[in-house]
Write a structure and sequence with these properties.
- The protein is of the alpha+beta class.
- It folds into two domains: 2-83 and 125-168 and 214-322, Porin (Beta Barrel); 335-524, OmpA-like domain (60s Ribosomal Protein L30, Chain: A).
- 18% of the residues lie in helices and 39% in strands.
- It has eight helices and 24 strands.
- The strands form six sheets. The protein has an eight-stranded antiparallel beta barrel with strand order 1-2-3-6-7-12-13-16. Strands 4, 5, 8, 9 and 10 form a five-stranded antiparallel beta sheet that branches.
- The N and C termini lie far apart (85 Å).
Amino acid sequence: MKKNIFISLFVLFTLQVMAQEKGSYLSLAGGGGIAGIKYDMQGVNFATPKCELKYGSQFGLGYSYYFNKYIGISTGIGFAQYRTNAKLLGDFQTDKYLVLGNYTDNDFAGNVKDYELRVRTRNWVEEQTVNYIQFPLTLNLQKKFGEKEHFGLYFAAGASFQLLGSAYYALYDGVNADDSKLHISGYYKEKNLELGALGAPDVSQHGFGAIHNPGEVLNMNNQGKLNLKFNVSLIGEAGFLFSLNRRVDISLGAFMDYGLLNINNKQKESFPLFTGPETDYVSLAENNNVGKGITYNSVTSSEYVDKIRTLSYGGKAGIRIKLGKLSSRENSKTLAQEPVLREKCRDTVYIVEKQIVEKQQVSVDSIMKQVAEKVEQMSQMSKISPKDVTTPEKPTLSEQKLDFYPGVYPEEETNQLFEPVYFDLNKSSLNPESIKNLDKKVSILKKYPDIQLIIFGNTCDIGNDSYNFQLGYKRAEVARDYMLSKGISKDRLKISTMSKFEPQLPNTNEENRTHNRRDDFKPVFPQKR
């Protein structure tokens, strides 16, 4: 009951997480390595026991949601396989054997003979395979490097809740009759005689001798089920991320999991490794049937094994795909391409409908004054010392009033003046795309020498406020200096910074932040004469 409640709560939590789309990823991953069920065999005195973990595999479909650039959670569904060889090593020895019981042999003369049924093993191997359906829940950390963040590291840690799919064992048969795995003999106490003893001829008519194919002879049909149960394992993973593009990442890493629960479903009672028949063994084994009537139980169900836990470690690879619609920089470079022309500066917004040209009185001096007041307010809000903030260049324009009147200019040209210029993370240098954009603006300004331009430098929210103010101003300054180098006079270009306080898109993920590392442009048009 408790397990069902726990699983139901887990599923509800998973659905709640998956209901969100922003910052979410779908992943497919698989791997392999050493993976098995691990336990100790205690009290084995007829052979040398050994538990050997073998190669296992796992794969799964996962869902991740990142709360920010670095931290997220993952869940999903998967499959894990554990494989182990339980070995009872050694050679047949007269002083190491298991007693399966005492029986009575009645011969044809009516004589009663009591004997002890003995079993010896040699290089006995039981292969165990366990398959689990697992539901992982992990906390994820990631960090990408470089300007374009094509490479990164990731870490994940959490728990995996595992439901048993199948668990079975099988015996290794010998290669041939010379590679015997099991030896059965009968010790007659009255005559101190062991029929089928080592070195003596087989007495197959009484069922005494060696066999190399125990899986076909014993009462187990060559394989049987393991009695295991529900598991919870602690899991960890670490590795590298490689970005193929803005949507797809490849992961390569290492994983490890360790079972927290004892998955042995054995109750208080355990079963002997071998059990003899309820009736007389010799009568059952007539006609050369060595081993007939003897039952074999798995090592895990025997008195030799108590606690069983899972353990695996190895390598893992996967592919991760970002969900949802990617914001396109090409589609959002400028808001001037929409039906309404907008200049994004919160306290100095000017809108001109394409169908209605409304004459508004405005001057560059008044705009710069409002911008300076805005910068001062942001500085105070961020508690930045004035010495840490680069003051916007003071305007020196005349008091002549200018009209915001773009209707007299071709629309395709005025739209170009509004287009932003984008920068890489922590950079203020112009890239080829930015230079191409500025060249178009220079061409328009040369064509219309009475248009002036105000440049606002912007940043994303990474970094402290003091640094962002300076970086934003530097971005505006580099755009102005480039246009000055192309012959535009200094009195036509004014610059300021809005730091991180005028984002084009919310700074909720890296994709949005690329749109906020930019210069915005506000053209000021002369009065129509």
